[in-house]
Design goal:
Blueprint (H helix, E strand, L loop, with lengths): L8 H6 L3 E7 L3 E8 L4 E8 L3 E3 L2 E3 L2 H23 L8 E6 L5 E3 L18 H11 L8 H10 L10 E3 L1 H10 L3 E3 H4 L5 E2 L4 E2 L1 H12 L7 H4 L2 E3 L10 H7 L15 E2 H8 L7 E6 L3 E6 L12 E4 L5 E7 L4 H16 L6 H12 L10 E3 L16 E3 L8 H25 L6 E5 L9 H9 L3 E4 L5 H15 L5 H9 L5 E4 L3 H16 L1 H10 L5
Parallel strand pairs: 1-6, 6-13, 9-12, 14-20
Antiparallel strand pairs: 1-2, 2-3, 4-5, 7-8, 10-11, 14-15, 15-17, 16-17, 18-19, 21-22
Helix pairs in contact: 3-4, 10-15, 11-12, 12-13, 13-14, 13-17, 14-17
Protein name: FGGY-family carbohydrate kinase
Family: Belongs to the FGGY kinase family.
GO molecular function: kinase activity
Length: 537
Amino acid sequence: MELHNTSTPADVIANGRTALGIELGSTRIKACLIGLDGDVLAEDSHAWENQFVDGMWSYSLDAVWKGLRECVASLVADAERRHGVRPATFGALGVSAMMHGYLAFGGDGELLVPFRTWRNTTTRQAAAELTALFGHNLPLRWSIAHLYQAVLDEEPHVADVRYITTLAGYVHWRLTGRQVLGVGDASGMFPIHLETREYDRTMLGQFDELVARRGLHLRVAELLPEVLLAGEEAGHLTPEGAQLLDPAGSLQAGVPLCPPEGDAGTGMVATNAVSPRTGNVSVGTSIFAMIVLERALSHVHPEVDMVTTPVGAPVAMVHCNNGASELGSWAGVFGEFAAALGHPTDPDNVFGALLRAALDSEPDGGGLLAYNYLSGEPITGLAEGRPLLVRTPDSRLTLGNFVRTQVYSAFSALALGMRILADEGVSIDSLSAHGGIFRTAGVAQRLLAAAVGAPVTIARSASEGGPWGMALLAAYLREAGGRDLSTYLETVVFAGSAEDVVEPVPADVAGFTAFLGRYVDGLPIERAAVESVGGTL
């Protein structure tokens, strides 16, 4: 693709014909600067970690802003290194973040309780009651489940709540002064009506009546962000917002912002999976699949969330709390071992060597069994997790079998949810994947194809992932030109783009099926570990 209306990247940056996407993920805050046609001009990231605060997984708001400032500063420096010019403005800007969770604010904008992330599974009673009330699956992670659980637990802060939002919505609010949210992220706060593309009014009323019986006169519609669709303007960067991102004062105010979105929405955009019968799988700290539906599902399934694309189309989301983190921990151990032998190596090299070893293994992992549960896993009914490796005396413990088992473990809960969609008759023409685990070509992609029983596509842009998808949504704000999002992606961004497609290998499919049988049969072992081994040793 040629750069848009200018001859060099330096001209594009200097003239502000760019879009900046920022995504606050579970382990990294990432930024990606693109031309308005999607070409990457600069990128960088900042590592951060969640904390366990008062029994809840959380990030401090100070860490949010420290990380954002460092990430933006690094991106600006990367642009200057690559192109000799420091961006002082952008054509458009967008913020995305991990979906769901609970950020509750009082009337003066003060945070009432520490941020409760998607990772918390303390909302079981609330989610069950709301699912029964709405006739709509209400996952543990959703913001309204967190609010209602606080009501059930009689938390004192509930009476003072004046606004609740997601992490992306919070950052956008501080940057622009506007309390808005993209429909995809909003659909993980409260159910969206698929015709109006707004919060479901009937369910809003049901919730208000429910909490009124407990003596609380909440009007939940007044607490939620305004819902916007991709392509709609969501405010401009204020001088105060510019100062938050760049205390040095080089960044100019006035940049238009697109609606803030969740990481699920940016994953759909980054993999060109926003049309019916398409889908994508995102693998990181968590793992989830997003399948764009032709019609609503016939039944409510607790394993499947109903959310939307960034333009409000219905999506079946299979979300698993535990993704590639346990495999990453093992890669760290093997890296330490290599260093102890006098051969220190880059973590990416260690990860790549391990994944390639998985191809030199038995299709079922040699009889090994693993659970990657660092936290609870709702799909299999676990409120907490304990990572485990289990084997019988006659299993074959080799490096390849061990790594294949760890990868299978990362995909197993997802596979259980995907089988529900298959039983519903959901058809998938194209399933794309993205995440760091796919940087090693042909390994995780092949094993995922076996787990879901469908071809898996990796776009050459897959490693850029969420922040690139958010930058595309920001560019779409400027470049839509009357085109719908799908047409924009097809004709401007992905036209002629290279892809690698892997079909399921029959031996791998049979091997994964055997592993999944052990996985399901062995779940009592995981439950016993949770009951027997305390969370703090």
